[in-house]
Model the fold of this input.
Amino acid sequence: MASPPESPIEEIVYELEQTRVPKPIPVALEDLCRQTKFTKQEIRVMYRGFKTECPEGVVHEDCFKDIYAKFFPHGNSSLYAHYVFKAFDVNCNGAISFRDLLVTLSTLLRGSVYERLRWTFKLYDLNGDGRISRSELSEIIMAIHELMGRRAHQPEDDRKARDQVDRVFRKLDLNQDGIITIEEFLEACLKDDLVTRSLQMFDNDL
Done:
């Protein structure tokens, strides 16, 4: 016979209400199971950790950047963390709720290759117009270089970054019209064994 829940919180998790002042409102655990590819037990475990680290029930950008900085202490992670935060912020309200976090992690950890690539495209599409321009790709790649500890505005590092932008853009812009569409992005990435292998590395349990 299954033991009863330790507390009501094990059967309820919270999300942000769409108001100027966020308020926690109850969401059935079953709803999150349907919306994600996690089990009830996995959601309970993640929720406990989330509430421990974020007692307010949401993650704001400054806190998100602090977390990123701990993982990349030798680089400047601020700009890249900003872009990732925007991609996690599903409701575009400046805060990541537990639901936002869970939905995104479900895509990245349990989603299909297509779903993961679509999320990556969204990350790179900085202005959200459904296309990736050369300048957007350049901003992302420069942010990654800073994240990895490469110095900005150093001639040699800047040259390497520009070369990488040119190389990647040519590879993704299949019709060479100066814009990368989602269709081009998917087709080019799926043909690249390195990309598909890196995505498949996440095919495991938490």
Summary: Residues 112-200 form a domain with the Recoverin; domain 1 fold (CATH 1.10.238.10).
